[in-house]
From TrEMBL:
InterPro entries: PepSY (IPR025711). Residues 110-131 have a biased composition (Acidic residues). It holds the Pfam family PepSY. Residues 89-142 are annotated as: Disordered. The chain crosses the membrane at residues 5-23. This is PepSY domain-containing protein. Keywords: Membrane, Transmembrane, Transmembrane helix. It comes from the Bacteria. Residues 95-109 have a biased composition (Basic and acidic residues).
Length: 209
């Protein structure tokens, strides 16, 4: 009998606790310190825009107003503590087309800046092909200063008259020269001429006695 009484008392205590909790929750939910009008005014001061009507709920035993605010940048969902007016959560729900356009334009500008930087970097660093082309141009410039074959043969004949049997261009100690072989009867001559100045570098004559 005594056990039954204890069990009944325990059960009543549990129900009482549950009932008190539900009562406090409902009381908290229905009686926040700040009214909907006060919450709306509070939010307007911080986040101007078109508001939806605040909806009251309970989160973690505290009254919470939830509402949406529409601004030029987009739509935002807010959660506000019903007792203190503190913003608990602010989430972007939707961005306006204008805002998306601005972000797209910013992304485009950043992309163009990156492309310009890459282009400048490419211009500053020559590729192997460009270097080869530059070297070819330099060589062409050098060749433009070289005397012609005809001029070289004329200079050689002035030193040793005869028939030119061979003419080659070669490099002698980093100096570009013409190597010319001339035959006159039984006699032969090998003449090296500076390809730039036309000066005689060497002259070898083989005379058949």
């Amino acid at each position: 009998m005594r056990k039954k009484i204890i069990w009944v008392i325990s059960a009543l205590a549990v129900f009482a606790i549950i009932g008190l909790t539900v009562y406090q929750t409902n009381a908290t939910s229905s009686n926040p310190d700040l009214s909907m009008e006060e919450i709306s005014e509070f939010v307007s001061n911080q986040y101007p825009g078109q508001q939806t009507e605040p909806e009251l709920s309970v989160e973690n035993g505290e009254p919470v107003y939830q509402m949406e605010v529409t601004q030029d940048q987009g739509v935002y969902s807010l959660k506000v503590n019903g007792d203190t007016g503190q913003i608990i959560d602010l989430t972007s729900v939707e961005r306006t087309a204008e805002n998306k356009k601005e972000e797209t334009e910013k992304d485009t500008e950043h992309q163009e800046e990156d492309n310009n930087e890459d282009s400048e970097s490419d211009n500053n660093s020559e590729t192997d092909e460009e270097k080869t082309q530059d070297n070819s141009n330099d060589q062409a410039t050098e060749n433009d200063a070289v005397i012609s074959h005809e001029e070289a043969m004329e200079i050689a004949r002035n030193e040793f008259p005869g028939e030119v049997t061979d003419l080659e261009m070669d490099s002698d100690d980093d100096i570009l020269v013409y190597e010319i072989e001339i035959v006159n009867g039984e006699d032969e001559a090998t003449i090296e001429i500076n390809a730039y100045t036309g000066n005689i570098v060497s002259l070898e004559i083989d005379i058949d006695d």
